[in-house]
Amino acid sequence: MSTQIEKIKKAIEPLRQEIINHKVYSAIKDIDDLKVFMQFHVYAVWDFMSLLKTLQRNLTCTSVPWFPKGTADTRYLINEIVVGEESDVDLNGVRKSHFELYLDAMKQCGADTTKIEVFTSVLKNTSDFNSAYLSSGTPKEAQDFVDFTFKVIESDKAYLQSAIFTFGREDLIPGMFISIINEMHKNFPDDISVFKYYIERHIEVDGDHHSNLALQMTANLCNDNEQYWKEAEESVIHSLKQRIELWNGVYRQLTERTTAST
Question: Is pTM, for the whole model, over 0.90?
Answer without folding.
Answer: yes
